[in-house]
Amino acid sequence: SSAFVVALEASRPVTREEFSHAIWHGDGRSRWFDKPCQFVVCDNARAGFSGEHSMMDGTPTLRLVQYVIENSPLPMGSANVRNCTFEQLHFRTPPGLVAAAKTAERLFIEGTEKQHLAVLNYSAYGKEEIKRLGCSPDAFIQLALQLAYTRLYGSARPTYESSMTRKFLHGRTETCRSVTRDSVAWCRAMMSLSSNDEERISLFQTALATHTRLVREAVEGQGVDRHLLGLRMVLRPEETKPEIFEDPAYAYSSHWYLSTSQVSSENFTSYGWSEVTPKGYGVAYNIRKECLIIHIACMRNEHALNSDHLAQYLETALNDVRNMLLKA
Q: What is the CA radius of gyration of the chain?
C-alpha cells in the first residue's frame, strides 16, 4: 500500500554504466519491482529513481524527481542528519515461498546478465549549440541516430520515438516513426561519395522538417499507432482480423529495432531502459545545455548487437552532422 519505496543499495558505483546498472536493477534483493516509484540510494550517496513504466511515463516522473531535488530538506553536502526510527519486518517464509524466491533470483540473474549497456557522455556540444545551428534538438538527435544505425548496419529499420499526448484526458503517448523517406534519403547522401555538402544539407533540412511535423502531429493525437491499437483491441475473439493486421509489412513496421525517447534534465547523469525486442536497442537521451547523455541498451544474444559500437557510431555521426551544418 506504500506510495513509493526507498531502496538502500550496498554497491558503490563509479562509472556511468555501473551507476545505471545500480539504479536500474541492482542485485535485485533490495527492490520491490511491483512498486511504481523507487528511490534508490547507493552506499556512496549517489542516488536515482526507478519507475515501473506501465503506470506512468517519463515526464511525470521527471517532475517528481525534480521536485524532490529542489525541495530536499538538506542542502547538498550537508553534514546534518535527521534521526529516523526503523523497525525490522519479520517475514514468514514457508517452503513454497523460499522456492519461488530462488527461482526469481535465478531468472533475475539470467535476465540482468544478458543486458549490455553503454552511456555516451557527448561533451562537444549540447542543446544550445544545436539551437544555434537552427535545428530542433530532438529532431537533430533522431537524425544523428538514424545515420549512426544506418552506417553500422547498412540500412534503416523501424524506429519508435515516444510523443506525449498528456494534453488529452487520460492521454499518455503516441508513436512518432522516425524513419521516413526523407531521413533515408539524407542518410544515403551522407554515405555516398558522389554527394556534396550542399545536397546533404538540403536533404538534412527536409528530413528535419518532416520529423518535427510528425512529432507535432503525434502530440496533437494525429498519429496512427494508438488508433490502430484501439481498432485491434476492440475486435472480438470470433471476428476476423482486418487484412492490415495480418500483413507482414505491418508486423515488421511495428518491430522496434530502435526504441527511443527523451527525458532531459541538467540534474541527471544517466537515464534509460532496455530494448523492446531481442533484435533491437533501447536508446534514451538527455539533451543538456552543453552536452548530450545517451543511454544505449541491448541484449547479449545470437543477434550480436553491441551498445558500445552503436555509441561509437553515434558519436561520429554527431560530429559529422555539426561539421556539415557549419559549412552552410
A: 22
d(CA 275, CA 77): 36
Nearest alpha-carbon partner for 324 in 212, 216, 208, 158 = 208
Asked whether the beta carbons of 283 and 263 are under 8 A apart, the reply is no
Q: Are strands 173-177 and 115-122 parallel, antiparallel or unpaired?
A: unpaired
Is there a contact between 191 and 151 (Cβ–Cβ < 8 Å)? Answer: yes
Cα–Cα distance, 140 to 296 (Å, whole number): 17
What single string gives the DSSP state of each residue in 251-278?
HHHTS-SEEEEE---TT-S------SST
Per DSSP, the three-state class of 50 is strand
Catalytic residue among 21, 25, 53, 295: 53
Judge contact between 49 and 38, C-beta under 8 A: yes
Split at pLDDT 50, 70, 90, the class of 270 is confident
**Confidence band for 317, pLDDT divided at 50, 70 and 90:** very high
* Start-to-end Cα distance in the chain: 58
Closest CA to 283 of 185, 132, 138: 138
Contact 39/49 with Cβ under 8 angstroms? yes
Among this protein's residues, is 53 annotated catalytic?
yes
| CA–CA separation, 233 and 237 (whole Å) | 10
Cα–Cα dist 260/138, whole Å? 11
Residue 274 CB partners (closer than 8 Å, separation 6+): 115, 282, 297, 299
Residue 24 near residue 140 (C-beta atoms within 8 A): no
In sequence order, which residues have a C-beta less than 8 Å from that of residue 117 and are 6 or more positions away? 17, 20, 21, 272, 295, 296, 297, 298, 307
pTM: 0.91
Q: Determine the pLDDT at residue 75.
A: 63
Count Cβ atoms below 10 Å from residue 123 Cβ, excluding itself: 11
